[in-house]
C-alpha cells in the first residue's frame, strides 16, 4: 500500500484489545472523513449490557469515545446507520437516545435496519463523520 492508501486506524482509549480480538478497527480516518465501525452497548470486558435502554446509551457512549479519539464529536456526524433486533418494540427507546445525542437540527441523515442477529446485542450504530479542521 502506498501512503495515500494506508488505513489510518483510530481507537478509543483502553478498548483497542477488544477490536484486536475481533480483527477490525474502531474507525478509519480517510482525509477529513471518519468511518466508524458499528458500536454496540458493550461493557468494558466486551460483554453485552443486558438492559436494553442502558445498552443503547452505552452504544452512543462508545461511539462518542471513538469520535473523540479522532478529534470529532456527535455534531460532526453526517451519516448514521443503526441496526435493531426488534425495531417495533425498541423504537421509543432508540428515539429517546437519538434525541439526546442530536437535540437540534440540522440532524444527520439516518438509516435504520432491522436484523435478526447482532452477536448477543440488540442495537448497533455506525456512522460517518467529518473530522474538524484544526487551526
TrEMBL record:
Q: Which InterPro entries match?
A: RutC-like_sf, YjgF/YER057c/UK114, YjgH-like
Which spans of this chain does the record mark as coiled coil?
Answer: none
Task: List the transmembrane segments.
Answer: none
Organism of provenance: Brevundimonas intermedia
**GO molecular function annotation:** deaminase activity
Q: Pfam families this protein is in?
A: Ribonuc_L-PSP
CDD domains in alphabetical order: YjgH_like
Q: What is this protein called?
A: RidA family protein
Tell me the superkingdom of the source: Bacteria
Q: Which GO terms describe its cellular component?
A: cytosol
